[in-house]
Amino acid sequence: GSPTLPKRVFKIIVIGDSDVGKTCLTYRFCTGKFPEKTEATIGVDFRERTLDIDGEQIKLQLWDTAGQERFRKSMVPHYYRNVHAVVFTYDVTKGRSFQGLPSWIEECERYSLNASEIPRILVGNKCDLKDQAEVDTNSATRFADANSMPLFETSAKADSEMGNIEAIFLTVAHKLK
Ligand code: GDP
Ligand code: MG
């Protein structure tokens, strides 16, 4: 057969408050499944998946980070070192997780040397609970536009939303290619 092309590997960090679903999103994207049970991430977990983008093998190495301060402090510089893209995540049912986004963006700008050049994506998760939403799509769209990020509203839980989770990372992969 033909020789396999070398893979290009990209580091993507998933950032946001505790409990917004960062672990579920990355797990869902990398395994296709919603985890039965998650525990608070300590430091960082790694998951990866290779996408075929126009015949090119693009390996996305996802850094699923801890949202809680006590697990993060010493890790933060590692998160942002040589990062290729950042996925900012909030929970549509928790207004606080949306209001917390500016401080995550500020952290990113403080720690990544090339913050203005790396692709950034905004994800509103738990859309299966839309009836309990505290963050409406209009406000989220305005915030995304103001920060030059595309917005994806997703659910790591609902099977019907898998397409939108794929779309997050396809968008990232296309931007990085
Ligand atoms: P993390 O702290 O940001 O990594 O959040 P987790 O991925 O550990 O998820 C926190 C909680 O939210 C868990 O109880 C998950 O089952 C739940 N969860 C995550 N994603 C979704 C979602 O899309 N919909 C719903 N309803 N629950 C979710
Ligand atoms: Mg987690």
TrEMBL record:
Compartments, as annotated in UniProt: Endomembrane system
Primary location: membrane
Recorded topology in the membrane: Lipid-anchor
A single BP term in Gene Ontology: Rab protein signal transduction
Record keywords, A-Z: GTP-binding, Lipoprotein, Membrane, Nucleotide-binding, Prenylation
Cellular component annotations (GO), alphabetically ordered: endosome; Golgi apparatus
Lineage: superkingdom: Eukaryota
Keyword GTP-binding belongs to the record: yes
A molecular-function term among this protein's GO annotations: GTPase activity
Family: Belongs to the small GTPase superfamily. Rab family.
Name this protein carries in UniProt: Uncharacterized protein
Shown chain mapped onto the complete sequence: 1 to 177 of 212
